[in-house]
User: What shape does this take?
Amino acid sequence: MSPEAAGDDRPRSLHDYMAAANAAYYGSRDPLGTQGDFITAPEISQMFGELLGLWFADLALRADAGEAVAYVELGPGRGTLAADALRAMAKAGLTPPVHFVETSPVLRETQRKAVPQAVWHGDLSSLPTDRPLIVIANEFFDALPIRQYERTAHGWRERMVAGTPLRLVPGEADCTDAIPIQLADAPLGAIVERNPASEGVMAALSARIATQGGALLVLDYGYEGPATGDTLQAMKDHRYADPLAEPGTCDLTAHVDFAMLAAIARANGLRPAPCVGQGAFLTGLGIDARAAALVRTNPERADEVAQARARLVAPEAMGTLFKVLAVRHADWPQPAGFA
Assistant: This one.
């Protein structure tokens, strides 16, 4: 975000503020890893990407899609997940074409080194239309801009970013129509979040999968709504930061409403699997066996592997805060990892 925009004290929606700040942030740096601002699951251990690759191969082969299916990843970070997943898929006899949806020129260069055969897209519109798509979205939806609504003494109002220094203030227009009916009578001061960007992406992907076949796997931190609460947060140097301080220099995210994503998929004719915690999902895919195999091959890495496994699956780490949703074409089989 430019200094001029950051210093503009005219009220703007939190949605517009978050979109501009994250566009500036992701467009100018590689935020991942120990030298960045945060670490995602693929950077913690190769086990994560390998298990997702085997999940992909298993589903594609059971659906009789085989080489016809395309691997699509939304916001693929450094390409680490895809590189690990594709390596595992190749051992299962599957080498699908790879498509990345990525807008950051900095991250595209890093991804090109990890997965040089990938085809890049700036949005969903140019993804292939001639084959089934299996789409992976790991920590993608949380970075899409949200709208927040607050119940005030004058009714529901959208929260706006304004002032110097920046702060959140209620707008003037009535926003009752934006509030889920189950939450309309929430107490004064309650916050309701909506994510029109996520809703649009989910609707577009669902329509594609309903027409072409395939599935979507979403892994992110979130909840099953509708629910009240302010989940906006910022990360900088691996610490929580003020989301309104120094816009464009930290990662802004909000928790994902998995029930909303599932409802959109269902409305488009897809079949959602019951949402599960990341710990249960990876355990069901065999992370314990994979960890044991890594230790047998590299006994000197035993502590490292154990710590990585714990970070991915332990309830006090990523195991329950991070959730997993799979939606599939009505004619496709139930994916592995779900009851």
In short: The chain has twelve helices and 17 strands.
